From TrEMBL:
This is phosphoserine transaminase. Belongs to the class-V pyridoxal-phosphate-dependent aminotransferase family. SerC subfamily. The lineage of its organism: Eukaryota, Metazoa, Chordata, Craniata, Vertebrata. Residues 17-322 form the Aminotransferase class V domain. Residues 1-14 have a biased composition (Basic and acidic residues).
Length: 346
């Protein structure tokens, strides 16, 4: 299915090219102002317009209810591993939280949270990150301030195809790698965060969507720049926000809106991932995906070649040949771990 004549020139990548060409066009002179977004003051009226329109687009695309704040922060998904416990552990006296650990990223988040309070892993430890543990085995703690999970484990290719039913507890979710890849019912969550660089823009900005009634209980050791109440109260400009990354996010969100919104992204992602899973399934074990079928990610598809652990010579040949076809970033090293700008779209 990879053909010699496949070429990745900008005009053949409509999603990337529209956004990047728009950014290129406006790079030196944003809408006739004579300056670039890169040069703009984050407190100027023009940047405020960009900030507000980006937030409004996000609210529109995800039907974010009015009692949720949308914040744009620096520090990436990893800063949120600390920000979530620092902001939410104080919801209950016990200072403890429940974590569902299904891969590398939720494991890192749980480890970080342990610095600030007690962490309870709700399910028996997994031997490998290849499935979502059966919800019937989860033991939630009544004193937990929140329940945390990662909806798509980027490295391991494990994706939730359901929202955990945790009754009245506060649900916090890392959606960094499947954000806006499909519609999501925001009202089921206390908090959602997502780094922009996978699906909605470039590195530098992380979106936080948080229910208003959860604000105001940050631990005293919470750095001011990670305090959701302070950042929300200052419309994300308590300190200098990543202005250009927010601007790029706005362009991507506009592209998503003009191309059928979250529902259409879901359809595309089903089609795209099916192409690869079908190939794996029909390969008689030549390609091996370790993840159980119902937990397979539509966003990141890890696979080995030749056998479960990968045949080194075959995998090297695959990477060399794929690089020759321009289908693969050779430097990304491992099959299935190449994250690209705008990966939500073909
Ligand atoms: N969570 C997930 C699901 C991720 O994929 C990543 C990064 N790949 C992170 C968190 C960490 O994000 P960052 O590198 O922006 O800190």
């Amino acid at each position: 299915r990879l053909t010699e004549d496949t070429d990745h020139r900008a005009e053949e990548r409509p999603s990337a090219s529209q956004v990047l060409l728009e950014a290129q066009k406006e790079l030196l002179d944003y809408k006739g102002l004579g300056i670039s977004v890169l040069e703009m003051s984050h407190r100027s009226a023009d940047f405020t317009k960009i900030l507000n329109s980006t937030e409004n687009l996000l609210r529109e695309l995800l039907y974010i209810p009015e009692n949720y704040k949308v914040i744009f922060l620096q520090g990436g998904g990893s800063a949120q591993f600390s920000a979530v416990p620092l902001n939410l552990l104080g919801l209950k006296e016990e200072r403890c939280a429940d974590y569902i650990v299904t891969g590398a990223w939720s494991a890192k988040a749980a480890k970080e949270a342990e610095k600030y309070g007690k962490v309870n892993i709700v399910h028996p430890k997994l031997d490998s990150y290849t499935k979502i543990p059966d919800p019937n085995t989860w033991k939630l703690s009544p004193g937990a301030s929140y329940v945390y999970y990662c909806s798509n484990e980027t490295v391991n290719g494990v994706e939730f195809d359901f929202i955990p039913d945790i009754k009245e507890a506060v649900l916090a979710c890392d959606m960094s790698s499947n954000f806006l890849s499909k519609p999501v019912d925001v009202s089921k969550f206390g908090l959602i965060f997502a780094g922009a660089q996978k699906n909605i823009g470039c590195a530098g900005v992380t979106v936080v969507i948080v229910r208003e009634d959860l604000l105001g209980v940050a631990l005293k050791e919470c750095p001011v720049v990670l305090d959701y109440k302070i950042q929300a109260g200052n419309n994300s400009i308590y300190n200098t926000p990543p202005c250009f990354s927010i601007y790029i996010m706005g362009l991507v969100l506009e592209w998503i809106k003009n191309n059928g919104s979250a529902k259409a992204m879901e359809k595309l992602n089903i089609t795209k991932s099916k192409l690869i899973y079908d190939l794996i399934n029909e390969s008689n074990g030549f390609y091996v995906c370790p993840v159980e079928v119902k937990s397979r990610s539509r966003m990141n598809i890890p696979f080995r070649i030749g056998n479960n652990n990968g045949d080194a010579a075959l995998e090297k040949t695959f990477l060399d040949e794929a690089a020759k076809l321009g289908q693969f970033c050779k430097d990304s090293g491992k099959a299935g771990r190449h994250a690209s700008l705008l990966s939500a779209v073909p």
